[in-house]
Amino acid sequence: MIAGLALIAVAGVVLTVVLLRRRYLVVTVEGESMLPSYLPGERVLVRRTPPDSLRAGQVVVLSGFAHAPPGKRPKDPGVSGRSAIDLSLSPRWIIKRVTAVPGDPIPRDTVPALRTAPGTRVPAGRLVVLGDNPDRSHDSRLAGYMTADRLFGVVLRKLG
């Protein structure tokens, strides 16, 4: 009887850990793109969040520019058998601040890559994200829209 209860308790703990790991992620900030808000080496707690719940001003974690969106397979190998894009050159995750979400006006003044974008509003499935340190950030200023399927979640807080 006691062994059965202990087994159920262990299974409950394991299930809880598995569920928490699917919903939360701890990311260590690398680089200077989010200075002065986030310092290199700081760790942040991120909660998986659907793109339709984002709003401007939130800090988010997305898959890197050269990486497949969360839950999707990486790009097919190139003709030489090597990856078409050297994934080691790009961070797995990037941290940026949301500037505009679908339906918001396109921020043409602050995002040069979108100055000639068609329409007046950010289209569905797209995000405009910027680093807090424009001199050290590769973001929508250079790359234009980010696809919303690259979103992992919203930064909840810094960890000690």
From TrEMBL:
Membrane topology summary: Single-pass type II membrane protein
Domain Peptidase S26: 9-107, 119-155
Protein name: S26 family signal peptidase
Family of this protein: Belongs to the peptidase S26 family.
Localisation per UniProt entry: Cell membrane
Entries under Gene3D superfamilies matching the protein: Umud Fragment, subunit A
